[in-house]
Amino acid sequence: MAMAMTVQQALGRARARIETLDAQALLCAALGVERAYLFGHPDHPLTPAQADRYAGWVERCAAGEPLAYILGRRAFYDRDFIVTPDVLIPRPETELLVEQGLAYLRGRPAATVADVGTGSGALAVTLAVHAPAAQVYALDISPAALAVARQNAAQHRAAVTFLEGDLLRPFLERGLRFDLLVANLPYIASGDLPSLAVTRWEPRLALDGGADGLDLVRRLLDQAPAAARPGARLLLEIGADQGAAAQALGAAAFPGARAAVLPDLAGHDRILRLDLP
Ligand SMILES: C[S@@+](CC[C@H](N)C(=O)[O-])C[C@H]1O[C@@H](n2cnc3c(N)ncnc32)[C@H](O)[C@@H]1O
């Protein structure tokens, strides 16, 4: 009978194909253990089913597929989210929108919140969990993305209302008004997409921002004045080179607002914040 493969042997084989941290993360998931277990139990044998699953995952990782899609999960802010290839993998820089949103909600706990382009629901669900008195709406044009977001709301017991349609249109059609709007809309210029690895795995609908990357931001800012309450805050994620252009669009849509471009941890322009009088 063939000897079962051990943790150490499995990692050794995988490391010949993929990064060490990825090899460890995949093995942890295949075995259902924490990372420390791998170091404490190098001789632990894998069952044939675990070895097969691990080998398949290593192959997918070696082909470039993001770990989040292989494992079906990604950590965002303070919890784990289900992700599938129908949604963008939530990024750490988007957590800035949560911080800025929660700071606003501390002063207005019963606010109405709109998350436009919710994808996995990472923003809407996190805000709803941390601000349980808020009325949180999550909007997306993709029914497949909304199905994933609904699962995430259910697993975190977040009270979120989901609306399908183009940007704020379903919100406006219901006569709703927001106090806080968060949106991480697609903001990559169409011409840049072919050269980017993300397009191979993540949905184009989540990435393509039109000729200058700002088409959706521009359209959202056209719609938003009709749905904004006095004193509202808008937080829009933008690309590193879009600060000045986005700020000009914000000022044109909301002439009386205080507009600021906030940097991410790497110092790049990342959020357009508009505070209405
Ligand atoms: C960059 S992803 C962001 C997902 C999620 N909010 C996050 O931060 O991880 C953009 C999302 O906007 C959605 N989207 C694209 N065009 C849209 C439109 N016209 N109206 C509503 N949602 C749209 C996509 O389906 C996608 O889920």
Keywords for this entry:
7-stranded mixed beta sheet, two-stranded antiparallel sheet, 9 strands, 277 residues, 12 helices, alpha/beta
What does this structure look like?
- This protein is of the alpha/beta class.
- It folds into 2 domains: 7-64, Helicase, Ruva Protein, domain 3; 77-275, Rossmann fold.
- The protein is 40% helix and 19% strand.
- It is built from 12 helices and 9 strands.
- The protein has helices at residues 7-15, 20-31, 35-40, 48-62, 67-71, 95-107, 122-130, 143-155, 169-173, 198-201, 215-223, 243-253; strands spanning 73-76, 79-82, 112-116, 135-140, 160-164, 178-183, 228-237, 258-263, 269-275.
- The strands form 2 sheets. It has a 7-stranded mixed sheet with strand order 5-4-3-6-7-9-8, with helices on both faces.
- α2 runs antiparallel to α4.
- The model has no long low-confidence stretch (mean pLDDT 97).
- S-adenosylmethionine binds at residues 87-88, 90, 94, 117-120, 122-123, 139-142, 145, 166-167, 184-186, 205-206, 216.
